[in-house]
Design a protein that fits this description.
The protein is α+β, with helices and mostly antiparallel strands. The chain has helices spanning 3-9, 21-24, 40-56, 112-130, 163-179, 269-283, 300-312, 317-320, 335-339, 434-439, 490-495, and strands at residues 26-27, 61-77, 80-98, 101-107, 146-151, 184-200, 204-223, 228-233, 253-255, 261-263, 287-288, 292-298, 352-355, 376-381, 384-385, 407-408, 417-418, 422-425, 443-448, 453-455, 461-464, 468-473, 476-482, 484-489, 497-500, 507-516, 521-529, 532-541.
Length: 546
């Protein structure tokens, strides 16, 4: 399934039925989510069965991942509950290197006999692959961590919150939207808990408890006279947090232009739905944009998607090397550009960093899925391309000897491979607010939220829309616009970056279902930034017929 297709399906109560069955797992009652699962001592013993079996069969390296994946999804529309989904998936995946070649197998029979059979299969696959392997796998060294644990620092576990409370909150948001001008509204709440245990022949035994949450909705307003309709999506961001994200604490909110609420560490879905209905209705009579060059003021919930597509994906090393060409494409940011050490990815103020450590982000973990302690590293510094995203068997290709710690698998049943970490734009160093930025714009557009987009197979030429748009004239917002999209290419766009608000405006956008690989897997990743201005960007009118 394509990522964008799934986003469309989430507007339906049956959306969960469209997801990969192995990702969902088996249906269970809500109370079964509270089952503590397998004891960590037993996990260690089962993992050792895999590791010892692999070594006895000639593996030079082996790792085992025991995973328990818990999901709860709630879907509503107007005044009705459409679906409540509770699932559990549990099993073990074993990865080995034999004769310099990878092999992988998995099983949901987490017993000594089941694990031995799966390990034997992984070794057999590696041996079969080794007959056509041209170059042996080269693993960067990794420190042995011994027995360690890591947990998402949550304040409220979603599993402890009754389903009825979640349903009531979504229906309250729906009611608020309908009371304020919406004709239709659907809402959903995605909650995920990954309980992951990793062990390897390098001597690490890592137990992690990872939480993610995503509240979302779409409201639609209709002009019954003309049949015209406009929608507005939620301004929420998926987060690596517990249910406390839904508390809507006023101390964590910022105010944007035209009363737009900008959420950071908590989210008020009822408040957002209320404003969403009013804005969807206002879009029905909003001025259609005149095509031309504008200075764009992009808020983080919008800019995060642009970062994801024009920075995150093209700097994945496997994509750069052509490994993803058959499915997700390649990259314009080829190794020859990086080797020059002076390729201008963006303007001098553009600093883009990758990390798997940022608190509250979707990608935050203590260790990646091959036992590497996570960290932060530069991708672009002072506008210059400096690095890529790479894992243990890739970094030697860019003359480095330490994995970046960005290996991930969506489940125990899938092999781990390089996945995008959080990729973020550093805020400006000088004190500078959204209001300050708007005052400095003579002819521009303020864009908030995500919309439709398109980008080519090399992640170079692109077009992005948004959720709401406001015209800026002579330092002031003068009204709402509609039919807005901007076009550029990655290098031109990032070199037009002229000003970035300071850290007080820093917020995160997230992608809950980012697709990659064959067979396809999904991952969750955040992108942080402050509101940013890009000068002289080409804007088109998407509503005008040619």
């Amino acid at each position: 399934m394509k990522r964008r297709d799934f986003i469309q399906y989430t507007g339906l109560g049956a959306g969960a039925l469209m997801m990969p069955s192995l990702l969902l797992g088996n249906d269970i009652p809500a109370e079964a989510l509270l089952n503590p699962g397998m004891d960590v001592a037993i996990k260690k013993r089962m993992a050792d069965v895999a590791l010892n079996t692999a070594k006895s069969l000639g593996a030079s390296y082996a790792d085992a991942r025991i995973g328990r994946y818990l999901n709860q999804y709630v879907f509503t529309r107007e005044d009705k509950v459409q679906n409540v989904v509770n699932t559990e998936s549990f099993g073990i995946g074993i990865r080995v290197i034999v004769n310099g070649t990878w092999g992988f197998a998995s099983t949901n029979s987490v017993t000594e006999d089941g694990i031995k059979k799966a390990t034997d299969q992984a070794v057999a696959i590696a041996k079969a692959n080794s007959k056509i392997q041209k170059e042996e796998v080269k693993l960067a060294p990794v420190k042995s961590h011994g027995e360690v644990t890591w947990k998402t620092p949550i304040k409220k576990d979603f599993k402890d919150v009754p389903v009825s409370e979640k349903v009531d909150l979504l229906l309250s948001a729906n009611a608020a939207a309908l009371e304020n001008g919406a004709n239709y509204v659907n809402s959903g709440l995605f909650m995920v808990n990954e309980q992951k245990y990793f062990a390897s022949t390098d001597g690490s035994y890592i137990d992690q408890d990872v939480h993610r949450i995503w509240p979302t909705f779409t409201v639609t307003a209709i002009d019954k006279g003309t049949g015209k309709f406009k929608s507005r999506q939620a301004m929420s961001a998926p987060m690596g947090m517990g249910y406390e994200y839904m508390d809507g604490l006023t101390s964590e909110k910022l105010k944007g232009p035209e009363g737009l609420n900008l959420y950071r560490k908590s989210y008020d879905i009822v408040e957002d739905a209320t404003l969403a209905a009013k804005q969807a209705k206002a879009r029905l009579t909003a001025k259609s944009v005149e095509a031309g060059k504008y200075d764009l003021v992009l808020e983080p919930n919008h800019l995060g998607l642009t970062i994801h597509e024009s920075v995150g994906h093209p700097l994945e090393l496997d994509r750069v090397l052509g490994y993803e060409a058959n499915y997700a494409g390649t990259s314009f940011a080829t190794l020859d550009k990086w080797k020059t050490k002076n390729f201008k990815y963006g303007s001098d103020i553009v600093n883009l960093v990758a990390d798997k450590t940022q608190v509250g982000s979707l990608g935050a973990v203590g260790y990646d899925d091959e036992g590497v302690k996570t960290k932060e590293w530069d991708l672009v510094r002072n506008g210059i391309l400096t690095n890529y995203q790479a894992i243990r068997d890739q970094v030697h290709m860019i003359d480095q000897n330490e994995s970046h710690g960005c290996c991930y698998s969506q489940s125990w049943n899938d092999v781990q491979f390089q996945r995008m970490p959080n990729v973020s734009l550093e805020p400006g160093k000088d004190k500078y607010s959204i209001d300050d930025m708007i005052k400095d714009v003579e002819k521009g557009i303020y864009i908030a939220g995500r919309g439709s987009y398109s980008i080519d197979q090399q992640r170079y030429n692109f077009q992005f829309g948004g959720t709401v748009f406001y015209e800026i004239k002579n330092g002031k917002i003068v009204g709402m616009l509609d039919d807005v999209a901007y076009q550029s290419n990655t290098q031109e766009f990032w070199n037009s970056c002229a000003k970035i608000c300071d850290k007080d405006d820093y917020r995160m956008f997230g992608s809950f279902f980012d697709g990659k690989g064959q067979p396809s897997q999904i991952s969750a990743v955040s992108h942080g930034s402050s509101t940013t201005r890009f000068n002289g960007v080409n804007v088109i009118n998407t509503g005008r017929k040619i």
